[in-house]
Amino acid sequence: MKRALFMFLLVSILLIAPYAGFARTPFDDIQSQASADIEAVYEKGIMIGTASNKFSPDEFVDRAQLAVCLVKTFDLNYDDLKFVKAPVPSDLYDDVEDNIWYSKASMIIGYNKIFNIADRKFRPHEAVTRAEAASAIADSFAAKKLSVITTMMWPDYLDTTNLSQKQQSDISFVFNTGIMRYTGNEFKPDEKITRAELATILNRTLKTLAVATPAQEAGPGSSPDSSNPIITPPDVNTAAFKDQGALAFIRQGLLYTLDGETGEVKQLTGSGRALQPAWSHDGQWLAFIRVTDQEANTGPLWLVRRDGSQAHQVQDLPQLVSRERFYWSPTGNVLAVAMPDGVWLVPAEGEPRRLVKSEGTFHLAWSPDGKSLAYNVTLPSEEPQNRSDVLYTISVDGGQPVQRLVAPQAGIQVTAWWPDGKGLLYWLDPLHSASLAADGMGLWSLRLGDTEPTLLTSGLAHRGWLSLSPQGSLLMVTGGWRIVWARKSLATVDLESGSVQELNNPEGSVAIDPSFSPDGSRIAFVTAKNLGDDVWGFSKPEELAAWVATRTLWIRNSDGSGAHPLTDAGAGVYQPAWSKDGEHILYVRDNAIWIIGADGGQPEKVLGLFPKGGDLFGFYGYSSYQGIMAWYQP
């Protein structure tokens, strides 16, 4: 019995611990494709042989062996934990002895929550499967708080669809990093791992660790899963988005793209928190904010190519940028940026330059032909309430600004040009009052060359509540008061004549989140229960959730006729947007992006945005996902 126990201990030590007598000594039983991987992990002391000249590549790996190998590969420990007494295996397990060769590794694994432990059983001598190895490696990256930038494809394995969501995500992670990638359409998740296979997996893991970067938890508003700081691959249904262009989205603070043609999901940032992605006119560049001030949601402006190359921070801008302060030209790869000291032009490749010097410039808009910009300037005044704004246009090729009008004792928020470029739309903010603006402002229209603007109607100045048709019509949400669940209706405006047509709401509802179809013939919008003027908030989360559940997707003709719900789209709908061919609608629901046929049918989930739900209340009921997603349609 003693001899048997001695031989077992000897073999166990040889499996894991380095043996000084035969470093770089080749084994005589590893004539296989894995020989280079075996030699690599052997030289690093991660795996050793079963005898002085035997590696036993076809033997199965058990949990004890994998635990020790992961601890050495990732340099895992529990040094940051404080214990009243020295930890022992019995603190965690009923089946691990003290002072056995894998005792400490089992505790490190346990305290780092790497293995799936149930009923205080470590199961040290149970063979490890591929699915278990994938999860253990993904959890080890999480324990080290490491992120890996990689092109991400959801693996097309037919035998993983019945696994848990976590197991599928873990397999996607090791697939995309190249740590565990198998040919064919099967992963074989229940197949046991051999020693040769583990050597290959660990050597690939070492190569991945060499390019990994510290992961940062996403900031406010991005709803990260703080219990799992590793950046897990997004759950993407590439088939649902096929031939729908490209989608930029932010998940756990990181920027990704989904290519509807190839199905490729690419991670473009590896740390920090990205905000407000914006596509260039040709879809080859993305601009975004890399947030440094979490409360103000401001930070440096960054640019990156669609393929992830040439990522760089824009230099020489006088201040940090914030949301809705930068816009791509509709005809070229150049950004216009509104800064307090004027308007700046930022080419995708080249140096930024200030186009015009001004004060108090916070709003701007490109002309449809990309040749001009409209912007506001705040005139100096000793009394802040008496400040006046001036509306200017300027050619981006240079020249003098053209003054279009002055707004006495009021602020100007430029929002858009007419689709034919013959006029401008802007909100008028009396006394530059943020409080007054929050309860609604007048939307004005100015034909270029005229001196008198036209008041169209009033509403809340949310860019997501304005939609322009190619024919020159404006679709918008009208109605004052900052609360979303009362007094909100849709109207269409003929910009040439200035005439406004109010559209009737479905009974008992408000109408919000409007979107013109590409040909201007139909309207997608969201209805929600009208709660009236007396409701200014919700005392319980369940009350807010109940109101959100009344948000449904509707379609109607642009003349207001034919209004009907797309009931299959579900409840809690936000921000519908049309596909370029007018056949599909992309929208947000249940913290995920969905797509549905414009004439109805079964919706499909494209991707989940966050591991957890975001803020449903927003600004008195207004929530926008424009800061975390952008859709490019060529």
TrEMBL record:
MF terms (GO), sorted A to Z: endo-1,4-beta-xylanase activity
Family annotation (InterPro entries): 6-blade_b-propeller_TolB-like, SLH_dom, WD40
Any GO BP: xylan catabolic process
Transmembrane domains' residue ranges: none
SLH domain boundaries: 21-84, 89-151, 154-216
Enzyme class: hydrolase
Keyword Repeat attached: yes
PROSITE patterns, A to Z: SLH (PS51272)
UniProt keyword terms in alphabetical order: Carbohydrate metabolism, Glycosidase, Hydrolase, Polysaccharide degradation, Repeat, Xylan degradation
Span list, region Disordered: 214-234
Enzyme Commission (EC) number: 3.2.1.8
Family: Belongs to the TolB family.
Name of the protein: Endo-1,4-beta-xylanase A
Species the sequence originates in: Pelotomaculum propionicicum
Gene name in the database record: xynA1_4
